[in-house]
Amino acid sequence: MLVPDLAPTVARFYGETVDEGIRLHCSADGRLELQRTKELLRRFLPSAPARVLDVGGATGVHAKWLTEDGYEVDLVDPIPRHVEQASAICRAVLGDARALSAADGSYDAVLLLGPLYHLPDAADRSKALAEALRVVVPGGLVAVAAINRYSPLFEHVTYSHLHEERVRASVDAILRTSVHDGPGFTLAYFHRAEELNDEMSACGFADVQVLGVEGPAWSLLKVAEKQPGQGPTDELIASALAAARMAEPYPELLAASSHFLGFGRKPTPM
């Protein structure tokens, strides 16, 4: 089996530093991201039972609810401890999004809900997209997640330190280059919405759509969570969710989401 070629900071971050299994459960904006990701995927996915390949599926956060929905899920991830944890939920193997072991046209849908985050080289992102397109059936769905280039600007205001020179310089570098490669996170690539659309279209996807996940109010949840007291109220969380849904028809609001989901299909031969 191909040993995944990971940047050392990525391998260390997910292998030793963070518990990816709890990220979407332990904060208000994480729960918003999970809820919106679920509702968007349920809107586009083929009906269960269908075969889904979860590429970069980490500990199986999405595989869990997908299997509960009746899907047959296989998971691929480059981090050994992720694969070990995910194996309790579905079939899980170590692998690289850029060189999948699955056969051509062997899945009804493919999810790339993380690999593009950590592939700063455009050629590597194209390989990952091309592999997803290869292993999905003609007419099948591929869903691709990306981090919004402008999300660090919103996020670091919530931490009340964007005015500090060190932080401001780091965020400014992301805004200029789309890449983060320093302390506090890991090697990461940040997309613009139109860039994700263009990359998917250039790889041959049909019917490409890019939607905002959390919408324009996610950073308000983070602010409320960091203030003294009970944190975000149920009403504020519900309002943030409503804002995400209402923002969908307006492309100019895409830049306010923390993450994007791109949806495309493998063309059907004429």
Secondary-structure element series: HHEHEHEEHEHHEEHEHHE
How would a crystallographer describe the biggest sheet?
9 strands, mixed
**Contiguous helical run count:** 10
Helix content estimate? 40-55%
Radius of gyration: 18 Å
Topology, number of strands: 9
Overall, the morphology is globular
Q: Tell me the distance between the termini.
A: 35 Å
Structural class: alpha/beta
| Overall average pLDDT | 94
Could you characterize the architecture of this molecule?
41% of the residues lie in helices and 20% in strands. α6 packs parallel to α9. The protein is α/β, with parallel strands linked by helices. Strands 1, 2, 3, 4, 5, 6, 7, 8 and 9 form a 9-stranded mixed sheet that branches. The mean pLDDT is 94. The longest helix is centred in the first third of the chain and has 17 residues, at 28-44. It has helices at residues 8-17, 28-44, 61-68, 80-86, 122-135, 151-158, 165-177, 193-202, 218-226, 234-247; strands at residues 51-55, 72-77, 91-94, 107-112, 136-148, 179-180, 188-191, 206-212, 259-265. It has 10 helices and 9 strands.
Element layout with pairings:
Layout: H1 8-17, H2 28-44, E1 51-55, H3 61-68, E2 72-77, H4 80-86, E3 91-94, E4 107-112, H5 122-135, E5 136-148, H6 151-158, H7 165-177, E6 179-180, E7 188-191, H8 193-202, E8 206-212, H9 218-226, H10 234-247, E9 259-265
Parallel strand pairs: 1-2, 1-4, 2-3, 4-5, 5-7
Antiparallel strand pairs: 5-9, 6-7, 8-9
Helix pairs in contact: 6-9
